Amino acid sequence: MKRFTVKELAAFDGKDGRPVYIAHKGNVYDVSESKMWKRGRHMQRHNAGVDLTADILAAPHDTAVLERYPQVGVLDKAQPPERQMPAFIAWMLDSNPFLRRHPHPMTVHFPIVFMLAYPFFNILYWVTGNQDFETTAFHCLGGGLFFMVVAMITGFLTWWYNYMAKMLKPVAIKIPLSAVTLALAVVSFIWRWRVPEVMTNPQGANMLYLFCSLAFIPLIGIIGWYGATMTFPIEEE
Hints:
Layout: E1 2-4, H1 6-10, E2 21-24, E3 27-30, E4 41-42, E5 46-47, H2 53-57, E6 71-75, H3 87-95, H4 98-101, H5 103-128, H6 131-163, H7 169-194, H8 206-231
Parallel strand pairs: 1-6
Antiparallel strand pairs: 2-3, 3-6, 4-5
Helix pairs in contact: 5-6, 5-8, 6-7, 7-8
């Protein structure tokens, strides 16, 4: 059996006609014949040429699927990972693979929905004059603000233990935009809380409040788009 280093395994990524190799619990498998690993990518989220031990633990199928493909070697574990995790975090993730991928995707949907609903209900109030819509918009802003903090915390954790805190392009865009969105949400919430009639008396500076609420539409859209590209990368022909 050939012994692969982490760097050597990375060369078998399925791109440009190269074989598709993956590692699991120290064993390296050739899954080139699998239709599910076309171009070295599985389900638009798992790349070939890496150790997928933790990912398979969190997968909806068991490891029996690997028995269909030939084992071509073993993975040399002598090389340390790029960044050592604290022992407690490493133990927690190994014991609960669920925590590796799911906390951020589970929590991020809440601020997305709330922060898009906030300007939507403000627009409905602007069109209909129904005060209930404006009140609902304020409640959505509060919910979005709360879950935005939760999503940002889980996002940083996911970035750290799944991507080793590498400054990828989507991350470089999401971090500053998320900070701007959070600051704008805090200002808007305090403004509406201190001045309840800010929407019912749309004159002068109060008009800025409406425009601030509309700004969440492109901000959330851009952040969501780049977040989705990390989970479901766009195929490059």
